[in-house]
Design a protein that fits this description.
single chain, alpha/beta, five-stranded mixed beta sheet, two-stranded antiparallel ribbon, 34% helix
């Protein structure tokens, strides 16, 4: 009975369909039967030639070393070393926003010019003012949308800071720091007939501080600022008293690590007060 051998290519395809791995030794094995001469048909490669695509070289973003160095608005504040451990991160390609603005006070408060000043008001603030002994006063800002409970917590924190600094209100408030002095808010009630604009809000704040200064003649103003920080700084420069700008009370309640920075910012002011007290005694 004659037998026709199948084509080697068909045989390999058959074995592959059965899951059998075809093995061809690269070298002759000792004692093995000689392999037949396989005649593989030439298969023309009809695939189109593909040009190699040049890939751009990948560059790693530069890495900068960030250290936990304290930053303060007061140039004469003592420097506190927060540790030598450094963290690294990729250097951003875009400029990060600055929350405690280094712009001009009017721009920081959102007053870009006459056109913006005459437009609809976006300036909103809720302030508290407290006269202290030793020729001092405190101005603190609270978020207008904060709950009564959050505002009470902020005033309690203010009372704790004043006690820690040995600063005392002129009026005896006892242990009840809930009211904590005089309040001033913007926008004012509409029945007063005042324009509700950025320019009017800045003028109202300037008038409030000027009246307090003319009445009490304080030498130092401690400001727990926020959106009004730039305006308050500009007003203080015009009136001529010393001022210390620190983080807001609500910010310290949200981020406890700010308390350490605020404490360092207060040291130059406390040193001036201590010097004044020693001269009087």
């Amino acid at each position: 009975m004659s037998r026709q051998l199948i084509n080697e290519v068909d045989r390999q395809a058959y074995l592959e369909a059965l899951g059998v791995q075809v093995y061809f030794p690269r070298q002759a094995l000792a004692g093995a039967k000689a392999s037949p001469e396989y005649d593989f048909p030439e298969v023309e490669d009809t695939r189109p030639a593909v040009e190699p695509v040049a890939r751009p070289a990948l560059h790693e973003a530069p890495v900068e070393v960030l250290r936990s160095a304290p930053v303060s608005k007061n140039p004469d504040r003592p420097v506190i070393d927060l540790g030598s451990a450094a963290k690294t991160r990729a250097k951003p390609a875009v400029e990060l926003p600055v929350f405690r603005s280094a712009k001009k006070p009017a721009e920081a408060a959102g007053i870009a010019g006459e056109d913006a000043a005459e437009g609809a008001a976006t300036l909103r603030f809720d302030l508290g003012y407290l006269a202290l002994t030793d020729g001092m006063a405190v101005l603190y800002e609270l978020p207008p949308a904060a709950s009564a409970e959050d505002k009470a917590r902020a005033r309690e924190l203010l009372g704790a800071i004043l006690r820690a600094c040995d600063l005392h209100p002129r009026e005896d408030l006892g242990s009840a720091y809930g009211a904590m002095g005089e309040g001033f808010s913007w926008p004012m009630p509409n029945d007063l007939g005042l324009p509700n604009t950025e320019k009017a809000g800045a003028a109202a704040l300037s008038g409030f501080l000027r009246r307090r200064y003319d009445s009490e003649r304080f030498d130092e103003l401690l400001v727990f600022g926020g959106v009004v920080e730039g305006l308050v700084a500009e007003i203080g420069e015009k009136l001529g008293y010393k001022q210390t700008l620190v983080a807001s009370l609500s910010a310290m309640l949200s981020l406890a690590s700010l308390k350490r920075e605020v404490w360092a910012d207060l040291q130059p002011m406390l040193a001036r007060i201590a010097k004044t007290r020693s001269k009087k005694s």
